[in-house]
Design goal:
Elements (H helix, E strand, L loop, with lengths): L9 E2 L2 E2 H4 L1 H7 L3 H10 L5 H8 L4 H31 L1 H8 L2
Antiparallel strand pairs: 1-2
Helix pairs in contact: 2-5, 3-4, 3-5, 4-5, 5-6
Length: 99
């Protein structure tokens, strides 16, 4: 199972993004660019994109993203989400990884 999607990003049987859910909700600042890239990559639908963007704060947007599209997309979708976060928020992800 070493080559299965998501296995490289697992921490104690949880995906990295699930393990760090609270920190990501609190600390991701570039939510709109993140949503744009998730839509472009087919991880979220146009409807989900609009619903998440309708929230007023970054934290509410991230919570909506976690509770809907990210819950449904599985490990491969979460890997793509993490790749996008590494591009947009490299210092945050490095901090969470303990680097």
């Amino acid at each position: 199972m070493a080559g299965a999607p998501g296995t490289k990003n697992m921490i104690k049987d949880k995906h990295f993004v699930d393990h760090h859910r609270t920190s990501l909700i609190d600390r991701v600042s570039q939510v709109e660019p993140l949503l744009d890239r998730l839509l472009e990559r087919g991880i979220i639908t146009q409807n989900a994109y609009s619903e998440v963007r309708a929230n007023r704060t970054s934290q509410k947007k991230m919570r909506e993203l976690f509770d809907g599209p990210l819950k449904a997309c599985g490990p491969k979708g979460k890997d793509i989400f993490l790749d996008i976060l590494m591009d947009l928020e490299p210092f945050l992800i490095s901090d969470l990884k303990g680097e």
